[in-house]
Specification:
Layout: H1 2-11, H2 15-21, H3 25-28, H4 32-37, E1 52-56, E2 58-61, H5 65-76, E3 80-84, H6 106-111, H7 116-129, H8 146-164, E4 167-171, E5 174-181, E6 188-198, H9 210-217, E7 226-235, E8 249-252, H10 258-263, E9 267-268, E10 294-295, E11 298-302, H11 315-318, H12 332-338, E12 340-342, E13 349-352, E14 355-358, E15 365-368, E16 375-376, H13 389-394, H14 409-428, E17 446-448, E18 473-474, H15 501-506, H16 509-519, H17 524-528, E19 549-553, E20 589-592, E21 604-606, H18 624-644, H19 660-671
Length: about 700
């Protein structure tokens, strides 16, 4: 026991990391210039009394895939679930964000090793179209229409409520404005939300893009565009359970970690400091402003005849940014079919850059999500999208009633413009910022799809909400081996060997030794005891194994880095240097329950992209099947906690000692078709080559 404790302490030694976590003065406080540039937003008027009160056993904030999966399992467990969503569609990535091309790894897909609800969703897609891939895209085995995804998923939730005898209370077009944290400081006792609908005589929802409406949504008072209804959510059970166990659970499944910010629990944003746990970090200190780019997707349709295309007034501002990116991708047909979501007629087999695909034919519909196209990638204090805690304070959003969503509306607007400009570049552009002249040719036989009956369901044609790759990420509770708070780090999932000269030259000798020790697995004791030098030991060839794993995921560490200068679209701008260093393949990985439990608040769980991962690990923990698995874990855990009276943090607070109730929870997840580990997961299994 003493040897294993020593091994864990050394492997998770955070001395160097803790030193790096001490921010430089530049990052500790915003400069006076920055603070003055963040003028307080127009705060909401004091609220009138709530128009109605709704009771729940599980309140899920955010109706993306993680939130839908949370609701799905809660409903099957017979619980009353309130599900709020900022847009009017459920599904997030596959619907309101328009990224309706399932990001899946080949081996996991071939074995169909997914959560039961995700499998049911895939089967419903198959039944809807008679196939999984009605778009015949080549990025995935399943590309489909976003508006259909909403309908399919909503039907799935309604059927789950019937089968489990649960109750679904669905609140579309709803934002949470305030949370009521009790006098003890560790429980959310209520939440106030604002639901909006068109005012009399106003245009329908989804007429204007998000940047023009989001601040209105967070104001209590009615406006010329929206009529508001104030909803207060409270526990269905009025009394605490035996032993003061929470009587309801609140799950943050938002795209940016809104509830995390509102509850003011510890979290991270952006780049983490370089350490032996995050050795590929692009910075020796943290940088909260550099998060991955966000994307407004849109749909375009191939046409028989050439269309007339009018250049947007803002196009010249963004033209210096657009590019096919790489020579092997510099083909319009390849880009169009990459995420083609509808193809009624099969085109000719063709090939470009080593990729086989069927050529576009008239009436084919493509969804566009391209790094050097409609990604918007701010990375500085002047333009970052997700406000830091300091910025939230400066804008008054942490004061009572001051929450306005925590996003910079002007960056949303520019993200919308760069996306609409990208369509014009695709059909009429002749420049390429990365490949030079002579590469890009006009493609006028295409039209931009817009309207309430379009694939995106908006008058403006953009997705209702941008695809968010990264938001706020909680710091889990301090626990054995994680004195600074539980986190899943880069080295916990990456397949990289870390013997490249880059790491010897970039890391200090002590940091490099700690890195090799942490990667050594069962041979770490030989390094600690001095029998072997760090480079003599082969690294473990698997991801970290967690005793509290409640879900699974597998995807590459995939970056859409922030840009160096502001604005991101500036001519000759570059990606932030070193941000792609950590990119690459990852081993199949797990979702520890500790990564879903925030500090301070005992009745809140986090699902989706805001779990406790580092900046680099988060680049893999963000895709469709992971979101569902994390949500399934949150829904099952919340239902289990209500049933047993054991709060989630109590399931893990004695680790690495035995936690009998944790074992029961994991068995329940497995029994209900929600895997907590990949086949043959063990410290003795070092062969994961077949998992591609």
């Amino acid at each position: 026991m003493a040897a294993s404790r020593l091994l864990l302490n050394v492997a998770k030694d955070t001395t160097v990391y803790s030193q790096l976590m001490k921010r430089s003065l530049r990052h500790l406080t915003l400069s006076l210039v920055t603070l003055t540039s963040l003028a307080p937003v127009a705060l909401a008027a004091p609220p009138r009394n709530p128009d109605k009160q709704e009771t729940c056993e599980i309140l899920v904030v955010g109706g993306g895939l993680a939130g839908a999966a949370t609701a799905y399992e809660g409903l099957l467990a017979g619980r009353t679930v309130c599900l709020t969503e900022i847009t009017d569609w459920v599904g997030g990535q596959i619907s309101s964000q328009g990224t309706s091309a399932l990001d899946e790894r080949p081996t996991q897909r071939s074995r169909l090793f997914y959560s039961r609800g995700y499998l049911e969703l895939r089967e419903r897609i198959n039944r809807k179209y008679g196939e999984l891939n009605p778009g015949d895209c080549w990025v995935s085995e399943s590309c489909f229409l976003p508006r259909d995804a909403h309908n399919l998923l909503f039907d799935t939730l309604q059927d789950a409520a019937k089968r489990g005898k649960g109750q679904l209370k669905w609140f579309p077009s709803t934002v949470v404005k305030e949370v009521d944290i009790g006098s003890t400081g560790n429980l959310i006792e209520g939440a106030i939300a604002i639901q909006h609908k068109p005012a009399a005589g106003a245009p329908p929802l989804n007429t204007e893009p998000l940047s023009q409406t989001i601040e209105d949504w967070y104001r209590y008072e009615n406006s010329s565009r929206f009529e508001k209804s104030i909803v207060r959510f409270v526990p269905q059970r009025q009394q605490q359970q035996q032993g003061n166990a929470p009587n309801w659970y609140v799950v943050d499944a938002t795209e940016t970690g809104e509830m995390i910010a509102l509850a003011d629990v510890p979290y991270r944003l952006g780049i983490d400091p370089r350490s032996h746990l995050e050795p590929s970090s692009s910075s020796a200190t943290n940088d909260a402003y550099c998060t991955q780019g966000f994307t407004y997707t849109f749909a375009m349709e191939a046409t028989e005849e050439a269309q007339t295309h009018r250049m947007p007034s803002f196009y010249p501002q963004y033209e210096p940014y657009y590019s096919y990116e790489l020579q092997r991708l510099a083909d319009f047909g390849l880009v169009f079919t990459y995420r083609r979501i509808w193809s009624p007629e099969e085109g000719e087999q063709t090939k470009f850059g080593g990729v086989n695909f069927t050529a576009p034919t008239p009436r084919d519909i493509s969804m566009q999500n391209w790094t050097w196209g409609n990604d918007y990638r701010p990375g500085n204090a002047e333009d970052n999208l997700v406000f830091t805690r300091e910025q939230l304070q400066a804008t008054g959003q942490l004061s009572s009633g001051g929450w306005m969503g925590g996003l910079r509306a002007d960056s949303l607007r520019k993200g919308e413009e760069i996306s609409q400009g990208y369509f014009h570049w695709l059909v009429a552009g002749t420049t390429d910022s990365q490949l030079g002249d002579g590469v890009k040719k006009p493609q006028p036989n295409n039209r931009y799809l817009s309207g309430l009956d379009s694939p995106m369901g908006t008058v403006h044609g953009l997705s209702k909400y941008p695809y968010m790759r990264e938001g706020r990420r909680i710091i889990g509770r301090p626990t054995y081996g994680y004195p600074e708070g539980f986190t899943v780090w880069e080295i916990d999932i990456s397949r990289r060997d870390y013997k490249e000269d880059y790491y010897r030259q970039t890391l200090s000798p002590e940091m490099y030794r700690n890195l090799r020790t942490a990667l050594a697995g069962r041979e770490a004791l030989s390094i600690i005891g001095g029998q072997k030098q760090p480079d003599e030991v082969m690294r473990r060839t698997r991801s970290s194994i967690y005793p509290d794993s409640v879900g699974i995921g597998h995807y590459a560490i995939d970056f859409h880095p922030c840009m160096t200068q502001t604005p991101p679209e500036a001519p000759n701008n570059t990606e932030r240097e070193g941000e792609r260093q950590g990119a690459g393949q990852a081993y199949p990985f797990q979702i520890p329950l500790r990564a879903m439990i925030p500090q301070k608040i005992d009745n809140m769980l986090v699902a989706g992209k805001s779990i406790a991962t580092s900046h680099i690990a988060a680049a893999a923990y963000r895709v469709h099947s992971f979101e569902w698995s994390s949500g399934a874990a949150a829904g099952t855990t919340a239902a289990f906690a209500l049933e047993t009276g054991v709060a989630p943090y109590q399931l893990t607070d004695q680790l690495p000692q035995q936690e009998p109730q944790l074992r029961v929870l994991r068995q329940r997840l497995e029994k209900t078709g929600n895997p907590t580990a990949f086949p043959d997961t063990s410290i003795f299994n070092e062969n994961w080559d077949e998992w591609r």
